[in-house]
Amino acid sequence: MASDQHLRKVGRFWDERTTTPLPNRVRWWQSPRIIAHVNGIVCGEKLPGINQGAIRLVQSMFPGRTFHRGISIGCGQAAKELGLVRQGLVDHFDLFELSAERARLAMNNFAEAGLSDRVSISSEDFFKLNVKDRYDFVHWDNSLHHMFDCDEAVAKTYALLESGGCFFMNDYVGKSRFQWSDRELSYINAFRNSLPDECYLTSDGQMMGKEVARPSLKSMVATDPSEAADSESILPSLRRRLRNPRIVTTGGTIYHTGLNDILANIAEASPVLGQALKMDSILNDSGVFQYAVCVHAAR
Ligand SMILES: C[S@@+](CC[C@H](N)C(=O)[O-])C[C@H]1O[C@@H](n2cnc3c(N)ncnc32)[C@H](O)[C@@H]1O
Question: What is the pTM assigned to this prediction?
Fold first, then answer.
């Protein structure tokens, strides 16, 4: 179980990230072309909009279904959960979010949409509460990799799911604490070294470093102790706990780590981005990936 001190630090980190958001297009999820690429892998159609491929997959596995009660841990500002309610896929969500500021904004977002009665939110640690309620939709979106014990998180939430309910995960499942393997680093750096210098220029004329290295564990824990704390355990845990879950790996070695920060210097329509996505797909197909979607009907 995570210490209270670590949990408080996580909450503070995400409070601050909310008040000082990332600049534009420095991460893959800020690129409509990469989002469409990921959706194409998940559902076969390059749909616009974050997660729309995964939602299409849920709809194909649960045709015509509306889930009555969903649970989501690490919801952030709950944009994704609000989207699912608006799209008519889920009626009501119980949300858990450690950052008080994000929890407040999540509530506001539902209120502004006129949907306050469709949500409850808690900033307490889900793992310390003895939640006994039953759900027909378990939602993990880019938060499972922030859990300190991912197997416990999968097991505890899967146990809350009614038979016939949906376990949904869309998350980073790569190396814990971003400790990339030598093989991953060789692909990432071969790609980065092939790019022209202008891709590395900052807005004030400096050059960013080309070579990616493993971050130090000390710096990872000092910044956000929850970052990829136990992410390597996610896929083994899903396979063990859920029995034959539908898992689609969605790449990321190049579009996440290879393009980190420099994406801002590569236009959406650029052939360089096309090449990056091609290389990412080749790696994904050969079992080198960082992200995955899992949709599973509970027995
Ligand atoms: C990468 S953000 C993802 C937010 C949101 N799910 C999304 O996709 O936009 C991870 C979130 O998990 C929250 N978090 C981390 N550890 C948590 C925990 N043990 N319980 C609840 N929330 C947690 C953080 O505060 C942060 O808002």
Answer: 0.96
